[in-house]
Sulfatase (Sphingobacterium phlebotomi), 519 residues
Amino acid sequence: MFRNKIKHSILVYIAWIVSLSSYGQTDMQRPNVIFIMSDDHAEQAISAYGHPISQKAPTPHIDRIASEGALFLNNYCSNSICGPSRAAILTGKHSHKNGFMQNGNRGFDGTQQTLPKILQQNGYETAIIGKWHLISKPTGFDHWEILNDQGDYYNPYFITERDTVRRMGYVTDLITNLTTDWLEHRDKNKPFFLMMHHKAPHRNWVPAERHYKLYENTAFPIPETYFDDYEGRYAAAQQEMNIYRDMYEGHDLKMVTGIDSDTLLYDPWPHAFLETMTQAEQKRFFAAYRDRNNDFYTTKRTEKEKALWKFQRYMQDYLATVKSVDESVGEILDYLKANGLDKNTIVIYTSDQGFYLGEHGWFDKRFMYEESFGMPLLMSYPKHIKPGIKIDGLTQNIDFAPTLLDLCQIAIPDDMQGRSFKALAQNGRTPKDWRKSLYYHYYEYPGFHSVRAHYGVKMERYKLMHFPKENLWELYDIKKDPSEIENIYGRKGTEKITQELQQELLMLQDKYGVDEKYR
């Protein structure tokens, strides 16, 4: 009897030691990472951020990431355009250091150090599915299947290392299906790093067929600056990205030549729209828009009313295109939970930059103004991030790579210019030694939309921008003027803050090694 008790005690003790050991292994197990990035998805169109536009078109599945993790309130890009932002995310470096400064570059230098390469070298299985848009072939990925250039909304071509295949269907759904298929067939003995990159909601905002009429009767709130006159802002006045003046009425706004017409007014890139649809798909597309297009011709409108009509058409299509992205995120989150991966997987949702939804009368991005400089960031990781926290600290896309390496218990290379925000994500509090400013630089001029090259510095309250070719400056008090319509540079009383920001700007340029030719 006594011996049985001793034997039982020993077995209990061994079981306790084993349980502690197992707990330690589970706790120290490196996390999986799913990095979900859409294209041109504005914060205003994510309901977790609370903007009035998004309340009319909520994104409940994307919001789940914030409710289960963190919502970043002050996250920004380093260069607000597709390719350069992607290069910054991959390398943790500003454009002038990673070499991809504008979309017209010859190609991303795939021989350089990148986040997926480092993870791959440390035992991760890596994959990218969807939009790449860096001209060169992906490196550092065990599997890649990318869209050809921008990709098409319907029946797009996907490029792999072996061949190019046309897949029939809607691009967002196809990317989601390819992603879940890869998750099913991955090496289950390795942690994984997966980048799911959606084309949507990039121009020209073609919704999935099931969503053509989703918001046709919804009136979205019009930004107060929709009819901005750009007084005191030379570069803003010179752009070519105004909704009611510069949008292509056929390609962008789905407008046709007349009543009951099945011919678009103007489509400069038919390969990116109707040419990729089957005849049956084209027929259903025109049928879905016919009543609204007929109404445009049968209702007499002033020029101002036409401008407002175009805003509503833009919003209806843009937000209907977002709907499929939100559904995709829901499918991925459900997959993780159903397969027991949700507890040990970092999920990130972001976009390559922000986007204008009518502010200043605009669509597109490029400028350092808040709507396109800011980029959404939602992140969950149950082992590290408390549910529902909001992060105020200044973060940037060059921080993504060092943060993920930090969370995956991998050393951060010294030459990465970003900084891990692991500490911010842990409890939402901003450390005392956290950065007080951000550097931005846009290079692509002359270029599409005629946005002048510029750089600048953002601090908590103030922002200073410089357009070097024109030698023009803009200064904004974001607290008093969040819409950035009042350029206060050179005004009496701004001398001290201007000097402080110019000194901060020089400090950042020196810190990041910006060559004199780019200053």
Summary: The radius of gyration is 25 Å.
